[in-house]
Amino acid sequence: MITILNDDFSQLNDFLHEKSFSKIFILVDENTHEYCLPTLLGNMETDLGFEILEIEAGEEMKNIQTANQLWEILTEMQADRKALVINLGGGVITDMGGFVASTYKRGIQFINIPTTLLSMCDASIGGKTGIDLMHYKNMVGTFAFPEQIFIFPKFLETLPFKELRSGFAEMLKHGLIADTSHWNQLIQIQKLEVGTVTPHIQTSMNIKQEVVEKDFHESNIRKTLNFGHTIGHSVESLCLQQGNPILHGEAVAMGMISEAHLAYLEGLISEDDSKLIIENIQRYYPYLDISDFKDEDITALLMNDKKNTDSKINFSLLTGIGSCTYDHQCSQKNILEAIHFYKKLNDL
Ligand SMILES: NC(=O)c1ccc[n+]([C@@H]2O[C@H](COP(=O)([O-])OP(=O)(O)OC[C@H]3O[C@@H](n4cnc5c(N)ncnc54)[C@H](O)[C@@H]3O)[C@@H](O)[C@H]2O)c1
Ligand SMILES: [Zn+2]
C-alpha cells in the first residue's frame, strides 16, 4: 500500500496508532539523518519509544558487515518481534533495512519512507530487499513486502540534481514499457526539478506496483522493468571498474538509447519511434563517453547478466512506445551495432 503523505504526516501517525508495535527503529544514512529525519521526527506523533540507527551514505555500505552490525544493534536493544523498522532514505536504506528487518528473528515488520526519486518510483516498491556480495550487486536478499510505503515528495528538495535526474530515468522507463501517456507527459518537462517531476511520481509508482502485482517472482512481465538495464548494467559495471562510477539512472538512460536502437534493428519498433525515444532521452542526459570500452568487455558483461538463460542474452525490448517484450534474443551483429550506434551518437 502506497500513501502520499500530507504535510502533517497524519496517515503515518494513524498507521502507528492502529498497529500495536513495541518499539520503533528508524534507519537513516548521514544525509537523510541531516535532511529528512528532523521533518519525520517533527511530525511523528506516537507514545512508542524509538531509536535512530545511522549508517554512512553510499552503495559501499550495502553489505553483510553493515547488516551484521544492524542485527547486533537490534539484539542489544532488545528489539522483539513486534518492533517496527522505518527505512528513511534512498534505495540503499530501503534495500538494506528491508533485508535486515525481514531476516531479524525470521522477520519483523518494516515500512519504507523513500527520500530519493529513484527509491520513490522504483526501489521502495516491489518487495525486493538485498545487499551486495563481493562486487556483485544485490546477490543476497529476500522477497519481503513493507507494511506500508509513505511518500513525502518534499524530501526531494534537498536531493542533488544528478540524483533527481538519475531517478527520472526509471520514470521514463515506466512510460516507455507500459504507459504511452505517462511518457508523453514526462517529455513535456522542459526543466528537471522537484516541482516539474513531483506531479508524475504517483503514476510512475503505480506502473511499477501494477507490474509487480502481476508477476511478483519475475517469471514473465516483471522482466519488462529491465528495459535499458542489460546494456546499461554492463556500462555501469565498466565505469565502476575503471574508477569512474556513474549513477544508475545515467547508465539506464544510456542503456535505453542503445536498446531502443536495438529494438529497431530487431524489427520490433519503427525507425521513427526509436529516433523519437532517443532524441528525448538525450534532452535530459549528457552523452556518456564509452569510446574506450572494448566491445568484448561490454559483451562479456552482457553474457554474465542475471537474466540470461542457456548462455543466451535475454533482452527486454520495446515493441512500441508504451509496450515491451521480454526474453528476446538478439543477433550478435545487432547487439554490437546498437553499442556502436551509441558510441557514434555524439558525432552525428
Ligand atoms: N529493491 C529494488 O527493487 C531496487 C530497485 C532499484 C534500485 N535499487 C537499489 O537502490 C540503490 C540506489 O538507490 P538510490 O539512488 O536512492 O541511492 P542512495 O540510497 O545511495 O541515495 C543516493 C544519495 O542521496 C542521498 N540522499 C537520500 N535522500 C536524500 C535527500 N532527501 N536529500 C539529500 N540527499 C539524500 C543519500 O545519502 C545518497 O548519498 C541501489 O543499491 C540499487 O541496487 C533497488
Ligand atoms: Zn534500475
UniProtKB/TrEMBL annotation:
Annotated keywords: Amino-acid biosynthesis, Aromatic amino acid biosynthesis, Cobalt, Cytoplasm, Lyase, Metal-binding, NAD, Nucleotide-binding, Zinc
Main localization (coarse): cytoplasm
Lineage of the species this protein comes from: Bacteria, Pseudomonadati, Bacteroidota, Flavobacteriia, Flavobacteriales
Top enzyme category: lyase
Pfam family, one: DHQS_C
Keyword Lyase: yes
Family the entry assigns: Belongs to the sugar phosphate cyclases superfamily. Dehydroquinate synthase family.
GO BP terms, alphabetized: amino acid biosynthetic process; aromatic amino acid family biosynthetic process; chorismate biosynthetic process
Cellular component, GO, one term: cytoplasm
Catalytic activity, as annotated: 7-phospho-2-dehydro-3-deoxy-D-arabino-heptonate = 3-dehydroquinate + phosphate
EC number(s) stated in the UniProt entry for this protein: 4.2.3.4
Organism per entry: Chryseobacterium phosphatilyticum
The protein, known as: 3-dehydroquinate synthase
Source organism, top-level taxon: Bacteria
Residues covered by the 3-dehydroquinate synthase C-terminal domain: 167-308
